Amino acid sequence: MMLQKIKKDKFYRQIFKLVIPIVLQNLLSAAVSSADVVMLNYVGQSAISAVSLATQYAGILFSVFYGLGTGATMLCAQYYGKGDRKAIETVQGIALRFSITSSVLFAAASFLIPKQMMLIFTNDPELITLGAQYLRIVSVSYLCWGVIEVYLSVLRSIGRVMVCTILNTMAFSLNILLNAVFIFGLFGAPKLGVAGVALATSISRVIELIGCFVVSAYSKDIKLRLTAIFVKNKLLFQDFLKLSLPALGNDIVWGLAFSMYSVIIGHMGSDAVAANSFVVVVRNFGTILCFGVASAGGILVGNIIGENRMEDALDGAKKVMKLTVASGIIGGLIVLVATPFVLHYATLTETAMHYLKYMLLINTYYIMGTAVNTTLIAGIFRAGGDSRFGFICDTIDMWVYAVPLGFFAAFVLKLPVIWVYFLLCTDEFVKWPWVIKHYKSGKWLKNITRDNLFEES
Q: Which of 10, 25, 143, 387 is within CB 3.0–4.6 Å of 168 for a Cys-Cys bond?
């Protein structure tokens, strides 16, 4: 009966059309991360730990791009509902200004001072050397990534999700293939180990950027023109800053806090780092559907708000939440089912295996907290033009509660690794009361589009 209702409901049909390709993208992204860990498993525990710590910078940079992309999506989704293509292209240019600047800064730091960057996460000389080697080579990928993420975010906001899926499929598949080639020295290539992972990532990003320009050249939709960064519109720039800066701040605050979690774990020993490397991969698979629902729900609700159908937007948000709870349950079950397989095939020390077992069990329920908060803060609230609430909420939750608690538990109380990890994983549930209350208030629901934009600029 419930399935029949879902099939007949137009909103559910639309969201599933968006969710499926987004889930495929997330699945491929998780597959690349898992391929890195699985292949490096044959190189050694130090290789896994070093790459896990070095990629924390990619996590921070992704938070920057995700924040900028979300800011662009918030505006573009509503302007797409309104039917204003020129506004969408202008917003894309504004987002590119910031993303290209961030790419250049991160790439320069990774190439010039990689050892100093690794020192933040660990004091192990071997991990610092391996991580620095990785960062120097992967810096090339950072230069491409900013342009790719903004363009794909804009395409998703106008419903061109399948194009994004094809581009991601090409890049991720190439990344996995090149990982194997350069890690193991296939087809006559040298065995590069950690450097091979970085080289594979950089090559695949360059190819993906070329793919974006090819798609743009033949597309009848939004073009990828780097000259768009010079197009000026005062009102849109003000709106972008008003919406994007809190979203950007939110994602950076969240990303940096998660990096602090790695700092805490990184200074508790290589066994803890190695175990967490596997946990991150499994959790990524568990959250694939959750994040897909959050992204698709945000785009669709944003389109509806742009059409000024506020009651329909509220109804759509309720349906997205139902799907979120279901996806959170499925995600937890995925982690639970995967646990015995991971424990069987991981080649870690006895201590690391002990950590791995209990970290995975903690994540069977932690995913539900992540699912609800991501859907509401990064999906529904931002679709309604409210990025400020999430910024304030996550800043307090992560930096007043979780990060200080983690440092205190690890280095003052000197609690065992599992207890420290458990306390860090309470962060999502602590903010539930405020997040759910804000959702029920409906204060997040706003039409943020403007009329006569280019006559007034």
A: 25
Tens digits of per-residue pLDDT, 125-135? 888 888 888 89
Single pTM value for the model = 0.76
Asked if residue 144 belongs to a domain, the reply is yes
Taking the CA atoms of residue 450, residue 440, residue 426 and residue 266 in that order, the dihedral angle to the nearest 10 degrees is: -10
Residue 330 lies in a domain: yes
Report the C-alpha gap between 172 and 211 in whole angstroms.
13
Residue 399 in domain: yes
Contact 286, 332 (CB under 8 A): yes
How many CA atoms lie less than 13 Å away from 234 in the CB half-sphere?
Answer: 3
In a domain, 31, yes or no: yes
Measure Cα distances from 457 to 90, 184, 237 in Å: 12, 56, 10
Structure tokens belonging to residue 441: 């208030």
CA dihedral of 342, 348, 351, 356, whole degrees rounded to 10: -30
- In angstroms, the CA 342 to CA 124 distance is 26
Residue 325 domain boundaries: 8-448
User: Can you give the pLDDT at residue 191?
Assistant: 83
